[in-house]
Amino acid sequence: xxxxxxxxxxxxxxxxxxxxxxxxxxxxxxxxxxxxxxxxxxxxxxxxxxxxxxxxxxxxxxxxxxxxxxxxxxxxxxxxxxxxxxxxxxxxxxxxxx
Amino acid sequence: xxxxxxxxxxxxxxxxxxxxxxxxxxxxxxxxxxxxxxxxxxxxxxxxxxxxxxxxxxxxxxxxxxxxxxxxxxxxxxxxxxxxxxxxxxxxxxxxxxxxxxxxxxxxxxxxxxxxxxxxxxxxxxxxxxxxxxxxxxxxxxxxxxxxxxxxxxxxxxxxxxxxxxxxxxxxxxxxxxxxxxxxxxxxxxxxxxxxxxxxxxxxxxxxxxxxxxxxxxxxxxxxxxxxxxxxxxxxxxxxxxxxxxxxxxxxxxxxxxxxxxxxxxxxxxxxxxxxxxxxxxxxxxxxxxxxxxxxxxxxxxxxxxxxxxxxxxxxxxxxxxxxxxxxxxxxxxxxxxxxxxxxxxxxxxxxxxxxxxxxxxxxxxxxxxxxxxxxxxxxxxxxxxxxxxxxxxxxxxxxxxxxxxxxxxxxxxxxxxxxxxxxxxxxxxxxxxxxxxxxxxxxxxxxxxxxxxxxxxxxxxxxxxxxxxxxxxxxxxxxxxxxxxxxxxxxxxxxxxxxxxxxxxxxxxxxxxxxxxxxxxxxxxxxxxxxxxxxxxxxxxxxxxxxxxxxxxxxxxxxxxxxxxxxxxxxxxxxxxxxxxxxxxxxxxxxxxxxxxxxxxxxxxxxxxxxxxxxxxxxxxxxxxxxxxxxxxxxxxxxxxxxxxxxxxxxxxxxxxxxxxxxxxxxxxxxxxxxxxxxxxxxxxxxxxxxxxxxxxxxxxxxxxxxxxxxxxxxxxxxxxxxxxxxxxxxxxxxxxxxxxxxxxxxxxxxxxxxxxxxxxxxxxxxxxxxxxxxxxxxxxxxxxxxxxxxxxx
Lengths: 98, 795
Ligand code: SF4
Prior knowledge:
heterodimer; A: alpha+beta; Alpha-Beta Plaits; 2 helices; disordered C terminus; B: Phosphorylase Kinase, domain 1; Dimethylsulfoxide Reductase, domain 2; 28% helix; globular; binds iron/sulfur cluster
């Protein structure tokens, strides 16, 4: 269950920031902290890395979000951090140990 | 409280502390929960953020931005966020392997070390090392000493040649000494930030976040983006000035022209602290010749706003706007640049001209007011520039061509007189040309050892510089790396390396900040430190009787002693992390070289305590150590004499003055024509670190940016019958590739231009790029060549 602490910077005046934080807070897996000016602490918790990615992308797509930076990430109980395949190398090429 | 709740609270505490910019003392350290935390710089870009690395059960399990680090104040970008996962790709290299036929088969470390040593012994002058700005400082120092102090051939160069060599020559030509005088603090104080072909929103995101943060707090900071394509950064710019490739030289001259014409240059600063310089006979030269102020003014005469508009496509009004900004004394202006300026066939000239505009206008030496070049790699400054792992250089700003410098190095290394060769070795392009040319045809490099880089992917015009060597039976390629790459695929011998916190290390970032970390986890399988690999081969050569591996007292070049004065056989990997800290011993030896050019380094122990220190680091009367924010400025730089105000104490004119250069606009070596009508530019993307060796193993980064593409203008695409996602063939005079088209993506190329990122190993765009380079820095131009595009019709 990956867990991330983010700092999300939001543009605009107070009402627009309030709208953006409202949208952010409604995203599944997202918990908002106390707003500091235009910066909002956000914790994202999901079941797996793929779900985490989807939430992080959703956070960045929220209208008014200027920047999204990481303050903390925990992957300690992610079973297979390299999960998913390693892409194919160039066609017709053999590589690696025998 | 259960573990999940505990981790969540820790995450919220860290995010809140960073969001609220809490003083460090109030910022709770990451909670423990059986996780052991220690500091390290991020493995990726030259920004040099510090992370806190959480280790449990022998694995990196958590990452936090380091709140004590002034570079990033507890924040990280998407790459830094995933830096821990980069260790755990499934296909790490874990055993040495030798090529047999079409396959690589495992061999022992002992055999691998012996194989390398035997090849070097047979032809020491035909051996070369190709390293990296990702080498740690001790790794680069060990390789440097081995080649220049041991083998006397000077054939060592880093991939940093491909990214910041023009910045080096620009600094040396202007100030007489390399590396920025200013630092990142500028970003917190500048009124105007000018980006010269630079995209920090993707390439140096945490630095760019300082600007976003200021804006979000209502501060007025003007951002001017001078570029050849729109990028993510452009979205934040007040002015986007799109220029025709190569004409940035004319724009800089246009600003200088107006400062003189309008009398808005800083007369007092110029008269007090500057000289004028040019390449008198029109031939490229590192130091050039003096010119008078009148001659300088005359040389700039033709760079009127109208002439510059004609050349560059930037309107005369915008050139005037830039000159007016520079003409205002009360504004603080920071210029930032990176590859767009450096990877340029006149890269040295353009670096000089940016410094010239700042010096001429007196925008220098105050917080927020100065030129700051950025590096792409985490230790391009620390290892390539300061240790001097370039073919012409010696540690601490010395050069091999200077007999006095060679003598100093021989003394510090306790070598017999004359051991260091006075002839510069091959720079990157020449080295790979020599390796790819038959020995019988004059290709004098037959064994090449690559560490911490991926040249088959990153060299320009790879079809000429890299591939031919693979068809030549007597050319032997050794590659030390952490994952399979395009280069290991072609290697005759692969050595598995330890990565990042699997070893001790030190980096030096773009603002002269030297950083240190300790090994935290074991590398996988038989992977070992690159510095150990170098030392082990040196020792085998010593045992084989190669004289160069001994100092003048007969001691091994990498002789190390424990605290009782007993020699420790660090070439035996079981003893490498034992009674001595090899990094510390190498660093303590290296730091003796740092004083000549006033780049003083503190003892290793100081870096253990700090989140990096910016040199020169000098000791105060009370025994504590003090770093330097701004060089050449009285009150900041300890080497500036009282009453001087500014003192360029390494001035090439020996009068404490900086040089304001004139360099003319010169056309590029290849430009679009009827046959190849497009400009082709290459570069990086936010998610991937250079050739993607590490970041393509991190699933979220890979999914976010899975493959290369060609960015093109909608109208060009329409003319060619291409739509988003269609396959297009890109062709230059050097090769052809097929890529999906991306229109209206994160970047936007202007009409007649293409952009292709270089991270994707399936699409080696550098088989198409030019290897023409700056005649002074020898840095190739990856940013512009002529190309054509065709729609690929599938049957
Ligand atoms: S900005 Fe660079 S150094 Fe900082 S976290 Fe991102 S990749 Fe790492």
